[in-house]
Specification:
Elements lengths: L5 E3 L2 E6 L4 E8 L6 E4 L2 E7 L2 E10 L5 E8 L2 E6 L5 E13 L2 E10 L8 E3 L1 H4 L3 E3 L21
């Protein structure tokens, strides 16, 4: 891998393959430390003696795509939103695919239903790999949806 940073626009398409999200619009936000993912609902359970979280998110045109996923809870922390309100959020670690790159990131779950972008990509997820052109937008195009395997709907 070269030392050159990949340039992102202020918004990009991302994928979270381990969560079953092949593409999602994300706002690139260097003012936010952590990344956040919109969820409509979340629930906790124990798997193999460890705490897990299940969640549902809807996104896409007219919110027509519904994804249910689950992941081990990595951490829980207080997070201040853009209005300064503090909230305790669940964090998980998951692979992010963006601009031909993949890296594992930390992401918190919250209701971003009132926001234009279901995901916010914070600076810790970008550090050392990406740089931002605030005049750019969707510089890396939309990832293709996976092709269904024969015999699957």
């Amino acid at each position: 891998m070269s030392d050159a940073l990949v340039t992102l626009g202020w918004r990009e398409w991302v994928a979270l393959p381990a969560l079953g999200v092949p593409r999602l619009r994300a706002k690139i936000d260097t003012g936010a430390r952590s990344s956040a993912l919109h969820v409509d609902a979340q629930w906790r359970f124990v798997e193999g003696g460890a705490p897990w979280v299940g969640f549902r998110l809807t996104h896409g045109r007219a919110r027509g795509v519904v994804v249910e996923a689950q992941a081990p809870i990595h951490d829980e922390r207080e997070v201040a939103d853009s209005g300064g309100r503090r909230e305790r959020r669940v964090f998980l670690r998951t692979p992010l695919q963006l601009a031909g790159c993949q890296r594992e990131i930390e992401i918190n779950l919250t209701n971003r239903g009132a926001m234009l972008f279901p995901m916010l990509l914070g600076r810790t997820a970008m550090a050392g790999l990406f740089t931002i052109d605030p005049a750019g937008s969707f510089l890396h195009g939309r990832p293709p949806l996976p092709t269904p395997r024969p015999g699957t709907p």
